[in-house]
Write a structure and sequence with these properties.
The complex is a heterodimer of chains A (691) and B (256). With 691 residues, chain A is mostly helical. Chain A contains 27 helices and seven strands. In chain A, the strands form two sheets. In chain A, strands 4-3-5-7-6 form a five-stranded mixed β-sheet, covered by helices on one side. A two-stranded antiparallel ribbon of chain A has the order 1-2. The longest helix of chain A is centred in the middle third of the chain and has 39 residues. The chains are: A mainly alpha (691), B alpha+beta (256). Chains A and B meet through α3, α5, α7, α9 and α10 of A and α2, α3, α4, α5 and α6 of B.
């Protein structure tokens, strides 16, 4: 061991830094690194270049897999997983190891976050194709065209009321000349940079360890929504990094070195809170909730949790000592929480009293309320049905009135193969296994930090809301909450993971392999749980035939409408075509339930209420897509697979439904591309209903 | 330790030059992008961070994080403010706003710099040795290859091409003519037959139209004079390899 240490001066120095950083958990950690170890500074990037190269090779494999997927090659997905693991494994091993110094860890987490973002870009390299991207692109285009905010969005009317993302994208496009797609990719890339850096610094601030911080940041990136959902051009993708930055700024404020600094952090935090409030509703609500929790955590700890724990142990000693089984558990519990707690807790009561971002929480609450009242009051009609349905569904499920949702089975009937189900469950299981170890470390080392307790609360809550995944109406709410709660979960599990990594020497090597494999499974399970399986890889959106590029039918129909019908016509369509018409056609396209174009497109007759909708909303054109998949705003954007035969095997609506406008005496079928027809229904508004 | 005021002067100068490039070189994308990025995502935040935390008292990662994060917040809040002005959100108003913020915050930072006691900062050291540089260069090359591969449209396999057929009035003022167009999005050259019918009578026919992938064809058709009733103008498209089946059909009702 001695010999080994001598041959690794960098490792020893890094370990010294690790110890120093634990003892001194503030930003001065950075100075410790740079001042203690000149040898480390000389090779300060450590393995980062090599790890980057291996990660880049993983990324190339992912790109090849996506290319093969666009060509319909069946084993492309296997290559995708191999590429993803090739990317994840070296970063995991290096970030978990003790050797890397702080600078290298920061470089690794930033590079890792950006490389994962490149997977999303490789998935959709020609244009935005994810669920909400086209909706937000329309808002950004509105800002560019009008020079003003809040242009109504016919598909998702709440989105223009939170214009932070679109303002930033429009600013890039306006100043640089990039198109909305390029500007959108750029702003989300910058958001990724902020998220990786803010998470690292936040975790480091709380844990006092760059190593735990790097590991926790990487674990956070394994959350089910990180790879794709939070990489899309959507308001949450910007709000979440800003939220994380607020948390870091607020935590730094707690340990500011003087009043000047504290004032600086206070102003920065307030300013960033305003930006979050203007960018995304749920993020601003959850940020406020987190700040309130952080403020109240010490009181909860002092008045409820610690007295309760004490009482449990003394109760055991005084009253049930004779019952061996209770005695055994109480002894274990006492060892778990540690004697340190009792002797030192009272000394920390004053520390608790001084802590807490109460003022910031109140400011956030006021800002959220002001924005809601003055600008974004329709948010309630957007969120309340979703949350109400979720709550009702939970009650129905508990009462046995509603069948539980089947895990790993999509609405379209896709059932995940057994290995995917095992990986999905395994990812949860490994987090669950790391949780008690991490909680123990929080309890023993960070009990005097209110933010650590709040993060521990978030970690426990994550497992609480996993039950929502069994509910038909609530699973999406539960899924969406995961990227917020994972901020706490990643922290706690990382503390546990690092503890296991440095387990007893005899066990350390196998334990390291287990931890590395666990991270891989957590990653794979997250991707499986977070994204529809049929869209995990690129689908054919644009193909090359000779010198020509040919786009999918919906995209080409939208482009046709812009050229031949002009901009700004009012249209009704299914959701996928409506989104394409919004952005690529420049049309004012409605979809969904308000107005009820969904039912107009799903029925064979044309009753009076449908005519009234055409009249009331002044609809001029209807886009009819005969494919059932067009009702899916992501899967409906692509070419259809033929399965090797001459024609597409996609499922269609019944003919009497997709040809209903042919039977209307005043409708003209002005466009036909096979699956998609466009009808001029402007004259239909003047007639009475027909069957 | 006296780097900060110099940096702030540099920030102001870069902001001014960036603004000038954006406003005066409107057609060059790369140049404008290089000018726009620091103005949008670095300089305002850097100046504000320097004003809030004088004497380089933050570590480099923190300085970078706050510079970028606060710059985005400035863009968001500033965009909201610009919305209420008569100029709105356009290139000129953005440049004015971002330059003003950078300038004012830099002046405040300079003032606070004079008043605050110094705090030892961290040295800047981003040096790479040649081996590390080579590895990073290779990584950049591999990433570029991955993106180029992703951005390259591939030949179609196991998917189906299609053809667009459309019909529209020749103009709003002239109901006596229609425009008909075909766009072939098939993956091989395709032969068509096109028939134009008015009130179920064949008006005109093109027995053979051959279009390659991505090729368009368009024509105007004069309709017979008849203003007494609504006419139904149909265009029927057949493929020569399956001549009995209507491949695409469109229809226009021409009112009187």
């Amino acid at each position: 061991m001695q010999k080994r240490s001598q041959s690794h001066p960098t490792r020893n120095a890094a370990l010294a830094v690790e110890v120093a950083s634990i003892l001194n958990p503030t930003y001065e950690t950075a100075q410790v690194h740079d001042q203690i170890i000149p040898t480390v500074r000389a090779t300060g990037w450590g393995w980062l270049p090599a790890v980057s190269l291996v990660g880049a090779c993983g990324l190339l494999l992912v790109a090849v897999a996506n290319a093969l997927s666009r060509s319909g090659v069946g084993w492309a997905e296997l290559l995708f997983w191999v590429g993803l693991l090739t990317l994840v494994a070296p970063f995991t091993i290096r970030l978990a190891s003790a050797e890397a110094i702080r600078r290298e860890r920061i470089g690794l987490v930033v590079l890792f976050g950006l490389m994962l973002y490149l997977i999303k870009i490789i998935h959709s390299p020609f244009g935005f194709t994810f669920a909400d991207e086209l909706v937000h692109t329309y808002n950004a285009l509105g800002i560019l065209q009008t020079g003003h905010l809040f242009r109504p969005n016919p598909i998702l009317d709440v989105t223009p009321l939170y214009p932070g993302l679109e303002i930033a994208a429009a600013a890039i496009a306006s100043l640089s000349g990039l198109n909305a797609f390029g500007a959108g990719l750029l702003i989300i890339g910058i958001a990724r940079l902020i998220l990786a850096l803010a998470l690292f610094l936040l975790y480091e601030q709380v844990s006092g360890s760059p190593r735990a911080a790097g590991f926790a940041t990487m674990l956070y990136m394994a959350n089910p929504n990180f790879l794709y959902f939070n990489a899309q051009f959507s308001y949450e993708s910007l709000a979440l990094p800003l939220l994380t930055l607020v948390l870091f700024a607020a935590s730094r404020r707690e340990t500011a070195i003087n009043q000047v600094h504290r004032f600086g952090f206070t102003l920065a935090t307030l300013f960033l809170i305003v930006a979050v409030v203007m960018t995304h509703h749920m993020s601003s609500y959850l940020l406020t909730l987190f700040l309130l929790g952080w403020t109240l955590a010490p009181a909860l700890m002092r008045r409820v949790i610690l007295p309760f724990t004490r009482k449990m142990i003394s109760w055991n000693a005084d009253q049930v000592a004779s019952r061996q089984v209770f005695h055994y558990f109480a002894k274990r519990l006492r060892r778990f929480v540690g004697a340190w707690t009792w002797t030192n807790l009272d000394e920390n009561v004053d520390t608790y009293a001084r802590q807490g971002p109460g003022g910031l929480a109140v400011f956030a609450l006021v800002a959220v309320a002001a924005w809601f009242i003055l600008i974004a009051s329709p948010t309630i009609s957007y969120l309340s049905p979703v949350l109400t349905r979720a709550i009702v569904s939970i009650f129905h499920m508990i009462a046995g009135e509603e069948a539980a949702r089947r895990l790993f089975q999509s609405n379209s009937g896709y059932v995940a193969p057994i290995w995917e189900r095992m990986a999905g469950l395994g990812s949860v299981l490994f987090c669950l296994l790391g949780l008690p170890v991490g909680l123990r470390i929080v309890w023993r080392r960070h009990i005097n930090k209110a933010i650590a307790l709040t993060m521990a609360g978030a970690a426990v809550t994550y497992f609480g809301i996993l039950g929502l995944r069994f509910s038909q109406a609530a699973w999406e709410t539960g899924n969406r909450a995961s990227e917020f709660l994972y901020i706490g979960l990643a922290f706690v599990v990382a503390l546990g993971g690092i503890r296991l990594w440095q387990a007893r020497r005899r066990m350390s090597r196998p334990m390291r392999m287990i931890v590395t494999a666990s991270i891989g499974i957590i990653f794979i399970g997250g991707v499986i749980a977070g994204w529809p399986p049929q869209l995990r890889l690129s689908q054919p959106y644009r193909v090359a035939v000779g010198d020509h590029f040919i786009d999918s039918q919906g995209l080409a129909a939208a482009q046709w409408s812009r050229v031949h019908l002009g901009d700004g016509n009012i249209m009704g369509a299914d959701i996928s075509n409506a989104e394409l018409m919004l952005v690529h056609g420049g049309q004012h396209a409605y979809a969904g339930k308000w107005p009820d174009t969904e039912d107009i497109l799903a029925t064979a007759d044309m009753p009076e209420w449908q005519i009234q909708i055409l009249q009331r909303w002044q609809i001029q054109y209807f886009v009819v897509d005969r494919r059932l998949i067009s009702q899916n705003n992501m899967a409906g954007l692509y070419f259809d697979w033929t399965g090797g035969g001459p024609v597409s095997s996609t499922k269609l609506h019944p003919a009497d439904i997709y040809e209903k406008f042919d039977k209307q005496p005043n409708a003209s079928r002005i466009f036909d591309s096979g699956n998609i027809a466009i009808y001029d229904v402007s004259e239909l508004r003047n007639v009475t209903a027909t069957r | 330790m006296s780097r900060q005021p110099g940096n702030l002067v540099a920030a102001i100068v870069i902001a001014a030059i960036s603004g000038a490039i954006i406003l005066l070189v409107p057609s060059t994308l790369v140049v404008r992008l290089v000018a726009a990025l620091p103005l949008l995502f670095l300089l305002p935040g850097y100046a504000i961070t320097s004003a809030l935390f004088p004497k380089r008292s933050l570590g480099i990662p923190e300085q970078l994080l706050f510079s970028v994060g606060i710059s985005i917040a400035v863009v968001i809040v500033g965009g909201f403010a610009l919305h209420w002005t008569p100029w709105g959100l356009q290139a000129g108003s953005w440049v004015a706003l971002l330059f003003s913020v950078t300038l004012v915050a830099s002046l405040v930072a300079d003032t606070r710099w004079q008043r605050t006691a110094p705090i030892s900062g961290m040295p800047l050291n981003f040096a790479l040795d040649s081996r590390q540089g080579l590895l990073l260069g290779l990584a950049a090359l591999v990433i570029t290859a991955a993106i180029v591969l992703a951005r390259t449209p591939l030949p179609p396999q196991a998917i189906q091409g299609y053809t667009q057929l459309w019909i529209l009035p020749a103009s709003d003022k002239d109901p006596g003519a229609v425009r008909v167009g075909i766009s072939s999005m098939e993956f091989t050259p395709t032969e068509y037959r096109l028939q134009i019918m008015v009130d179920d009578q064949v008006l005109q026919e093109w027995p053979t139209l051959q279009l390659g992938p991505g090729e368009d064809w368009e024509t105007s058709v004069l309709l017979p004079k008849n203003s007494s009733h609504t006419r139904i103008v149909k265009a029927l498209l057949y493929r020569q390899d399956d001549p009995s089946v209507v491949y695409r059909r469109v229809l226009l009702r021409q009112g009187n």
